[in-house]
Amino acid sequence: MITAKEIMSTQVITLSPQTEIIKAARVLLENGINGAPVVDEDGRLVGILCQSDLVAQQKQVPLPNLFTLLGGYIPLTSTKQLDKEVRKIAALTVSDAMTPDPVTVNPDTRLDTIAALMVDNNFHTLPVLEQGRLVGIIGKEDVLRTLLQSPEA
Questions:
Q1: 101-112 pLDDT, tens digit each
Q2: How far apart are CA 49 and CA 77, in angstroms?
Q3: How many CB atoms lie within 10 A of CB 104?
Q4: DSSP code for 57
Q5: Residue spans per domain, the chain
Q6: Phi and psi based region of residue 88 (left: phi greater than 0; alpha: psi -120 to 50; beta: remaining)
Q7: How much is the pTM?
């Protein structure tokens, strides 16, 4: 069975949490990638920034649904979720827009597990960690290339 280490890209383009959003968008577009791992100054993975995180900036601020009860307002949506959306929309740096603590795989993760993670969770990019260190990245294109390697291709 094919594993992550056989299909991952080891030349990983990373971003820092302090990178400005405009620069991060340029990095993704110029390199034709959907997302990039975010690493701190020690090289530890702290998040992932995907195109969808940047597209979120074009949304309008969601207004919470409220209803009144005995003169008080009760929100129907989580204020935590609202705060998260507003932070992404108003992000100036990668740390504000990224998804913290992303789902990762290790070099020995099987292709079927990788595919299931991507499909079931709508992930386009999965960082590959080995002993806590970023060693690669897998995008949907990497998984698609395995189809071309099959005997029927």
A1: 999 999 999 999
A2: 25
A3: 20
A4: G
A5: 4-149
A6: alpha
A7: 0.76
